[in-house]
């Protein structure tokens, strides 16, 4: 696997990967990983969460691409305008729409044309006229300043090469007093060099992840306050995936190291007046992924 060198190369890898994913079902995306035969490649569904009990869930929009449930923690209210970054086939956008109601509005932003087409088709089938999907780059969003009440995102910001720019853009488009809830992948401690900067691992949300402290610092430097981790869990990559890049001794050593790869759901607020202060709920779990409890 070639080492990734430029931001433009990263974006093309992401676009190609998720164009392919857009043409598949959730079951097809999950079939190559965490099944009876194990994982031979990293799959976009390795870290997926179960949405089936959430109000507004639309199975046809769920491609199993997330690493959390940000809409569950997003403190959404009726009438709000919500922006879903990396909206895919519309899964989180439709869940958000069930809360903000007919008086609210949901905008989904995605980099991949195939995903936009799929999401728009799903919205049409569901008859939603207050959910729209726009193609665009998170580093330069086609969104007007100070127009968004709440931003959600599910395992997408780790795919953005310039994360600091992404957080700055989130701050720009958000209204004063608005807030975000995003699920993402972060690192605690370094990844082995053999796992860093690999195209396959980048598209699978691993090598694109940065250190948790660096991630939180970038959010705060963008201007957000009350930055809080709402949920956290450790992610364990399957051995057959690791064996493509590491020796058996290196895999054993990696498992003994404190830290590792984590999924976090993070809250942050843009300073300013608001009708009522949201109560930030947190939930910390040590649950690992790529086992039957989270992949089947």
List the helices and strands and how they pair.
Elements: H1 7-22, H2 26-31, H3 70-73, E1 81-85, H4 91-100, E2 105-110, H5 113-126, E3 131-135, E4 148-154, H6 163-173, E5 174-188, H7 199-203, E6 210-211, H8 212-221, E7 225-235, H9 239-242, H10 248-256, E8 260-269, E9 283-284, H11 292-295
Helix pairs in contact: 1-5, 6-8
Structure description:
The structure is a single chain. The chain is of the alpha/beta class. The chain has one domain: Vaccinia Virus protein VP39 (Rossmann fold, 3-Layer(aba) Sandwich), CATH 3.40.50.150. It has helices at 7-22, 26-31, 70-73, 91-100, 113-126, 163-173, 199-203, 212-221, 239-242, 248-256, 292-295, and strands at residues 81-85, 105-110, 131-135, 148-154, 174-188, 210-211, 225-235, 260-269, 283-284. The longest helix has 16 residues, at 7-22. 48% of the residues are buried.
Q: What structural class do you assign from the helix and strand content?
A: alpha/beta
Q: How many beta-strand runs?
A: 9
Helix-strand sequence? HHHEHEHEEHEHEHEHHEEH
- Flag low-confidence runs: 31-46, 284-296
**Can you give the helix content as a percent range?**
25-40%
CATH class: Alpha Beta
| 3D shape | globular
Instruction: Note the quaternary state here.
Output: single chain
% residues in beta strands: 15-25%
- CATH arch. level architecture: 3-Layer(aba) Sandwich
What fold name stands as the CATH topology? Rossmann fold
- Give the biggest beta sheet: 9 strands, mixed
- The mean pLDDT is 81
CATH-defined superfamily: Vaccinia Virus protein VP39
The first-to-last residue Cα distance is 28 Å
Number of domains: 1
**Helical stretch count?**
11
Kindly provide the radius of gyration, computed on alpha-carbon positions and rounded to a whole number of angstroms: 18 Å
């Amino acid at each position: 696997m070639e080492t990734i060198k430029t931001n433009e190369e990263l974006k093309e890898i992401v676009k190609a990967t998720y164009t392919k994913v857009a043409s598949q079902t959730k079951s097809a995306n999950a079939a190559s990983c965490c099944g009876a035969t194990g994982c031979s490649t990293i799959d976009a569904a390795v870290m997926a969460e179960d949405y089936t009990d959430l109000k507004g869930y639309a199975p046809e929009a769920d491609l199993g691409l997330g690493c959390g449930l940000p809409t569950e923690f997003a403190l959404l209210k009726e009438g709000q305008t919500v922006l879903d970054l990396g909206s895919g086939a519309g899964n989180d956008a439709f869940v958000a729409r069930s809360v903000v109601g007919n008086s609210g509005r949901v905008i989904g932003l995605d980099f991949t044309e195939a995903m936009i087409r799929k999401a728009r088709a799903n919205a049409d089938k569901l008859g939603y006229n207050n959910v729209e999907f726009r193609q665009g780059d998170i580093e330069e969003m086609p969104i007007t300043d100070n127009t968004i009440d709440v931003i959600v995102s599910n395992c997408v910001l780790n795919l953005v090469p310039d994360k600091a720019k992404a957080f700055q853009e989130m701050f720009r488009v958000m209204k004063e007093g608005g807030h975000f809830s995003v699920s993402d992948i972060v690192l605690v401690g370094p990844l082995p060099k053999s796992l860093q900067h690999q195209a396959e691992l980048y598209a699978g949300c691993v090598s694109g992840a940065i250190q948790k402290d660096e991630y939180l610092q970038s959010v705060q430097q963008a201007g957000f306050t009350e930055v809080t981790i709402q949920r956290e869990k450790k992610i364990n990559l399957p051995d057959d995936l690791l064996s493509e890049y590491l020796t058996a001794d290196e895999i054993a050593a990696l498992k003994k190291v404190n830290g590792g790869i984590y999924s976090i759901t993070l809250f942050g607020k843009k300073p300013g007046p608001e009708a009522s202060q949201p109560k930030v709920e947190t939930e910390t779990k040590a649950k690992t992924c790529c086992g039957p409890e989270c992949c089947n």
